[in-house]
Each structure stands twice: as structure tokens, then as C-alpha cells.
């Protein structure tokens, strides 16, 4: 516990660490006085001094000795300083392209705010578009307007800070993120808004959104839905055009019955080209518009020229087989072939997956088609049922075994949340567990450690350790098991409950897709997306493996990038950890082809690929200012909305707001007296003055 001496010089306080400091101070004072008395009143050499001179010299000696003794207590000086912190006024400016033509008045408004408020307040300027940052450089080049990103950034940046207000300058058009008013609850200060832009609506066509597949298989049909808004074009007719790779493939006329008309145009397209296909929707009005940039919308679809062929081999007809065929054919990337009996198709190598329904069986032990399939090393899916020969299945040594079954039992499926080979959405997992039971062999199955259980058997409401659905890989061959028959009941139940087959389709599609997916065992791999928007960074990843299939990144990896078969650029990948990464930034819209090259030892590796950067025009979609959202932000936060010409009222509002005031707090600092140079100077001065006076008054 610190003992505080009640010695205060302005805002200074002297403190000691020792609790008996008062006693010691008294002792030191008496000791200093006694030493001086002995030195000047008992010493005959001082007899020639006058009484007043002796008193002066004794006082100097006493003070000097006392200060020296005082330092033995390691005194601490505590200084107290009152600090006054200005409130922060955050100025946020929408730096997106929609405000480019208002750059001059906005810059003037910002300068006026600085001039009027900088003396009383600390001003921080923020710019926001697709992101929010502190900056003084207004360029109005943002491709998006994300007001919610600004609100979140300001809220996080000024935690426990004295923020007086947020002044927001913008047009109220947000085309990314959430409604900013949802984040006002994090603010304990008002938002003042200044609205720029034109709020008068004009004749305009705007394609608000287009829904489409990201990929489709060649020659398949896919649906595109375009949401189109017509404003102030009543009783007009617009022309709709759809083009693929600059070739018009469909046109239609759209009658516009009212001044605020919204329509969704749907159409079916057949995918004919291969690879990345660029589509463009254009809507043209019968009379001129001021803004035509929002009349078109471009999108890219990856047309895949491969299908996964599945052969379903069975020992006889069963409703499960029809159900599985229906499920497979509901997906455009699968094609199913059914074979009953012992006859094998001639083109066995053309199949990517074999489904063995209740095979091997006791009734057909010499199935030649089955032997060809087992010898093919292609992925397998076994469906075990009443005619399956479990001893023969054990003899295949394909990851699962069991003793002979003692009849059959009914079992529902219990989804295993620890399954990690692929993901089943929670909604589908819950639906699966409500499906009716299937018939499973009454026995205990054991699995190879390379297998994972997707679903366990749940008998009479009790989940067992026995697998119902399991998947894995043996010596590079993927194998799956469905250890029960009656899948057709699942499909009917799914439709009765949900009026569609979405759950069972998703469940079996994930199984089929996992089994046919080929593992990439190449030494050099590239990782990238096929489509990017022009406002996102294009990042290409790469991995290089040695002959022991260990990741290495000692050699350099270079890339040649070609845009639209014209411009060519060269890059070197960065090395991150044991992998490679190349950030190409935000390239211009267009088609890019790339070739990555590297050398490991005496082997050269190269990978080719292509991607497309799609132009986005979010800032051109809506050009009419939305001052309503600015008014809402101000009203709900306790601020006010102003037009630029009323900006002076904003300054009066802020200056008269009693809640926007400086923070006052006291700052204490502690310093040991021993570290004070002025104290040692004082000691030298005291003893030096004593010595000087003694010499001056006659003692040499």
C-alpha cells in the first residue's frame, strides 16, 4: 500500500513505497538539522560568521542533507494531467461510379465540412464502394455501392471511441450487401446524410437479374429467366434479343402495359457449343432512353461435352432398379443402361460406374458379365438384398464382410454427421431419417478402415453400429455399398411428403458423383474458376508433386496468359507454404487462356486452362437516386437528411447538439525522483551555494 505525502505542487504528488515513510522523514529531518547544528554552532571555525550568516548556511546544509536522505526512500513523483479529446466526426463518401458526374459538388461539400468543423472536431474521411477504407483520394471508380460494409467498418473501427456523428454523402443507391438500416443498432451516435443525384425518374429499361445454370451438358436444354423492369414506358413495345457468342438465337416482342411494369421472361436454350459460352440478353425500347447501359446482361455457361455412363446389372427385375434409373436420368450428366441376367454389353469399357444390384447371387454364380465388371477396376456400387450371396460378396474382398445372415429386418437410415467424403445438407439429412425402412440382412457387417459410413442402420428407433450406406476406396478403386433393398419406397415417400424427389435425388446423386469422380494423380495441377466478374481478384493456385507424391515448391512456376488471342502476358507464381499462388488482380473483361510451366529434375510439366472475366454493370443498373434510404438512416439514428444546398444547416445542427462534446479524462504518470536530473542539479546548487557563501564571507 502506497503512503501518499500530502505535498502537492500544482498537479504533482509525492509518493513513497514504504509505509513507515512519515517516521523516517521525521528522523531524516532531525538528522539533517542535528548535522547542520553541529557543523555550524559547535565548530569554532565558524565563530567569525554573523548569526544571520550561520543561519543561512545551516539552512542550506540542512536542506541539502535532507534531500540526499530523502532519496534513500525511493520517492515517486505522480503527475496529473487533464486531457481534453475532441469528438470524432466521420465523413463517409460514396466513391462509386454512379456519382462520378457529381464529383465537383461532392468535393466542394467535403472541403466545406472540413473548413467548418475541423477546429472543434477531429475529422476522419472514409470512402466506400465495394469496400470501405480511410482515404483522402476521391476518384469515383467503385463498381459497387455497399452501404452495409461502410456501417460495419465504422462500427468496428471506433469501438470505445468518442464518435460524435457520421456524415454520409451519397445517392442512396446500394447494389451490394444488406440494407444499411439493419446495422444502425450498433451505432450510439447520429447519422447525418447529404443526398446527391437525380431523384426524377425517366423512361428506362433495366434488367434486374438473370437466373441461369453455371454449367450444362452439351445438347441438353437449360432454362434462363430474366427479370426486367420497365419504367415510364406505358403502351410501348420492347424488343428482346438473346445471343450466344455474338449470334442472335432468339427474339421476341414485349408489350408494356403500364409505367411501372415488371416481367420475368423465361426461355429454354439448347447447349450446342463446347466450353465457356458467352450469352447476352438485350432489351431495346421503341423510344430513346437516357441510360441504355442497364439494357443488357452478359453471362457465361460452361458447356460440358462428357456424360457419366452407368451400367445397372441385376439378377432380375425389381422396382428399385426403375427408381435408380429414374434418379440417374434426372441429372443431365448421367446416362443409365439396364442389363438383366448374364449378358454383358459389348462396350463395357465405355461405362464409368457399375451398379451391381443384389449381385453376386446364389442363383447365378457364374455370371460372366459380373466377372468382366469385377476385372475392369472401374468404380462399383453394390446394392445388397434378399438374393445377394453374402459368402460370395465376402470372397471378393472389396472392403466389407459379414457372417451369414439370419433372415432380414427392417431398418431406417441414421445419417452419420462425421461422414466427410461429401456433404449432405441438414434439410436433406433430416428428411432421410424420416424415410420408411428398407430390408437389411440380419447380420453384423465389418468394414475396411478405408471406408466411411454415410448412414447407419436404425432398427425400431435404435441406431446401431451396423452400416446401411458406406463408401470408400481400395487400391485406387472406389466402392460403395447400400446394404438394403427398398429404395423405391424412399422415392415414393419423398414425393408424398415434399411433392418432389429432391431429397432422394440429392442423396443418390452425391453417392454416384463421388464414385465416378476421378482422382487427379498428376504431378502438376492448377486450381481456378472458369468464370470471374471484373470486380474480383483472379487467383490461380498450383501444386507440384515429386515422384513420391510429396508436395514441393522448390522450382519456379511461370505462366503465359493470353487475352482474346491477342495480348500476351508473363508471370511468375508466388511460393506460399509448399504450394504456389498467383494473384492476377482484376483483369479486364474477356476470354483468357493460360499455360503454366515448371521443371522438376529433368521432367518438364505444363498445364493449360482458360477462364472468362465477365463485365458487370451494377452501378449502371439504377441511376435514379434513392434519397429515401438516406432519410431512413438519418431518421432512425437521430440525425437529419439534408440536400447539398442546405449544408449550412448541418453545421448548426452538429454544433448545437449537446451530446457531441469532448471527452475529458485525467492522465497520471509516475517517475522515480532518483531519475530526475533537476533534483541532482538542485543538490549541487544547494551545496555549491553553501560553499560559495562560506568562501565569500571569509572562510577559505
SSE topology sketch:
Blueprint: E1 3-9, E2 12-16, H1 21-41, H2 51-70, E3 76-85, E4 88-94, H3 103-117, E5 122-128, E6 132-134, H4 147-157, E7 163-170, E8 191-195, E9 204-211, E10 215-217, E11 221-231, E12 236-244, E13 247-256, E14 260-270, E15 275-284, E16 296-304, E17 308-314, H5 319-329, E18 334-340, E19 353-357, H6 368-375, E20 380-383, H7 390-395, E21 400-401, E22 408-415, H8 426-433, E23 438-441, E24 446-447, E25 451-459, E26 462-474, E27 477-482, H9 487-498, H10 502-516, E28 524-527, E29 531-533, E30 539-545, E31 551-552, E32 558-563, E33 567-572, E34 574-576, E35 579-583, E36 590-600, E37 603-614, H11 618-621, H12 627-637, E38 641-642, H13 647-655, E39 663-672, H14 677-696
Parallel strand pairs: 4-5, 4-7, 7-8, 8-38, 10-16, 17-18, 17-19, 19-20, 20-27, 29-37
Antiparallel strand pairs: 1-2, 2-3, 3-39, 5-6, 9-11, 11-14, 12-13, 12-15, 15-16, 21-24, 22-23, 22-25, 25-26, 26-27, 28-30, 30-31, 30-35, 32-33, 32-36, 34-35, 36-37
Helix pairs in contact: 1-2, 2-14, 5-9, 8-10, 9-10
Kindly describe this structure.
There is one protein chain. This protein has 14 helices and 39 strands. It has 700 residues and is an alpha+beta fold. It folds into five domains: 3-81 and 670-696, no CATH class; 87-200 and 624-655, Rossmann fold (3-Layer(aba) Sandwich), CATH 3.40.50.410; 204-304, Immunoglobulins (Immunoglobulin-like, Sandwich), CATH 2.60.40; 308-516, Rossmann fold, CATH 3.40.50.880; 524-614, Immunoglobulins (Immunoglobulin-like, Sandwich), CATH 2.60.40. Helix 3 links the parallel strand 4 (88-94) and strand 5 (122-128). The model is unreliable at 1-10 (pLDDT under 50).
Amino acid at each position: 500500500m502506497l503512503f501518499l505525502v500530502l505535498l502537492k505542487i500544482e498537479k504533482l504528488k509525492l509518493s513513497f513505497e514504504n509505509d513507515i515513510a512519515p517516521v523516517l522523514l521525521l528522523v531524516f529531518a532531525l538528522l539533517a538539522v542535528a548535522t547542520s547544528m553541529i557543523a555550524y554552532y559547535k565548530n569554532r571555525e565558524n565563530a567569525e560568521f554573523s548569526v544571520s550568516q550561520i543561519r543561512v548556511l545551516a539552512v542550506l546544509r540542512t536542506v541539502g542533507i535532507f534531500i540526499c536522505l530523502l532519496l534513500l526512500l525511493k520517492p515517486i513523483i505522480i503527475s496529473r494531467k487533464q486531457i481534453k479529446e475532441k469528438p470524432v466526426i466521420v465523413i463517409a463518401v460514396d466513391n462509386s461510379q454512379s456519382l462520378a458526374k457529381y464529383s465537383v459538388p461532392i468535393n466542394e461539400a467535403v472541403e466545406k465540412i472540413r473548413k467548418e468543423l475541423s477546429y472543434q472536431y477531429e475529422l476522419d474521411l472514409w470512402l466506400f464502394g465495394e469496400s470501405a477504407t480511410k482515404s483522402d483520394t476521391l476518384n469515383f471508380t467503385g463498381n459497387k455501392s455497399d452501404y452495409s460494409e461502410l456501417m460495419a467498418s465504422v462500427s468496428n473501427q471506433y469501438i470505445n471511441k468518442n464518435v460524435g456523428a457520421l456524415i454520409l454523402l451519397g445517392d442512396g443507391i446500394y447494389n451490394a450487401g444488406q440494407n444499411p438500416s439493419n446495422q444502425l443498432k450498433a451505432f450510439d451516435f447520429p447519422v447525418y446524410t447529404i443526398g446527391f443525384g437525380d431523384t426524377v425518374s425517366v423512361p428506362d429499361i433495366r434488367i434486374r437479374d438473370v437466373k441461369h445454370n453455371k454449367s450444362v451438358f452439351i445438347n441438353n436444354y437449360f432454362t434462363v429467366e430474366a427479370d426486367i423492369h420497365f419504367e415510364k414506358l406505358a403502351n410501348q413495345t420492347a424488343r428482346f434479343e438473346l445471343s450466344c457468342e455474338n449470334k442472335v438465337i432468339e427474339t421476341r416482342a414485349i408489350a408494356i402495359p403500364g409505367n411501372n411494369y415488371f416481367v420475368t421472361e423465361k426461355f429454354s436454350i439448347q447447349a450446342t457449343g463446347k466450353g465457356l459460352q458467352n450469352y447476352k440478353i438485350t432489351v431495346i425500347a421503341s423510344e430513346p432512353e437516357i441510360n441504355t447501359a442497364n439494357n443488357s446482361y452478359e453471362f457465361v455457361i460452361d458447356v460440358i461435352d462428357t456424360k457419366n455412363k452407368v451400367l445397372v446389372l441385376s439378377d432380375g427385375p425389381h422396382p428399385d432398379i426403375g427408381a435408380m434409373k429414374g434418379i440417374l436420368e434426372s441429372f443431365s450428366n448421367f446416362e443409365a443402361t439396364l442389363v438383366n441376367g448374364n449378358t454383358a454389353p459389348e462396350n463395357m469399357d465405355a461405362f464409368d460406374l457399375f451398379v451391381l444390384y443384389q449381385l453376386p447371387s446364389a442363383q447365378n454364380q457364374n455370371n460372366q458379365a459380373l466377372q468382366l465388371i469385377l476385372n475392369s477396376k472401374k468404380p462399383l456400387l453394390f446394392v445388397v438384398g434378399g438374393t445377394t450371396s453374402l459368402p460370395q460378396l465376402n470372397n471378393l474382398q472389396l472392403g466389407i464382410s459379414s457372417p451369414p445372415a439370419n433372415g432380414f429386418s427392417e431398418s431406417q437410415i441414421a445419417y452419420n454427421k462425421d461422414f466427410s467424403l461429401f456433404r449432405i445438407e441438414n434439410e436433406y439429412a433430416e428428411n432421410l431419417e424420416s424415410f420408411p425402412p428398407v430390408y437389411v440382412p440380419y447380420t453384423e457387417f465389418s468394414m475396411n478402415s478405408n471406408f466411411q459410413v454415410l448412414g447407419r442402420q436404425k432398427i425400431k428407433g435404435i441406431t446401431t453400429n451396423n452400416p446401411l450406406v458406406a463408401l470408400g476406396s481400395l487400391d485406387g478403386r472406389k466402392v460403395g455399398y447400400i446394404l438394403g433393398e427398398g429404395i423405391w419406397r424412399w422415392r415414393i415417400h419423398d414425393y408424398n411428403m415434399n411433392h418432389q424427389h429432391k431429397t432422394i435425388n440429392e442423396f443418390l446423386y452425391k453417392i454416384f458423383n463421388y464414385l465416378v469422380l476421378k482422382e487427379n494423380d498428376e504431378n502438376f495441377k492448377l486450381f481456378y474458376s472458369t468464370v470471374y466478374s471484373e470486380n474480383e481478384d483472379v487467383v490461380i493456385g498450383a501444386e507440384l508433386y515429386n515422384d513420391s507424391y510429396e508436395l514441393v515448391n522448390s522450382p519456379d512456376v511461370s505462366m503465359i496468359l493470353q487475352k482474346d488471342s491477342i495480348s500476351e502476358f508473363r508471370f511468375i507464381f508466388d511460393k506460399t507454404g509448399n504450394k504456389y499462388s498467383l494473384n492476377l488482380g482484376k483483369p479486364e473483361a474477356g476470354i483468357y487462356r493460360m499455360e503454366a510451366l515448371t521443371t522438376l529434375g529433368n521432367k518438364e510439366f505444363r498445364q493449360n486452362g482458360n477462364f472468362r472475366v465477365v463485365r458487370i454493370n451494377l452501378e449502371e443498373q439504377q441511376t435514379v437516386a434513392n434519397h429515401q434510404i438516406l432519410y431512413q438512416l438519418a431518421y432512425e439514428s437521430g440525425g437529419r437528411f439534408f440536400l447539398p444546398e442546405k449544408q449550412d444547416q448541418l453545421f448548426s445542427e452538429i454544433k448545437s447538439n449537446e451530446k457531441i462534446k469532448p471527452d475529458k479524462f485525467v492522465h497520471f504518470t509516475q517517475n522515480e525522483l532518483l531519475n530526475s536530473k533537476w533534483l541532482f542539479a538542485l543538490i549541487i546548487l544547494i551545496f555549491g551555494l553553501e560553499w560559495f557563501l562560506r568562501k565569500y564571507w571569509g572562510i577559505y
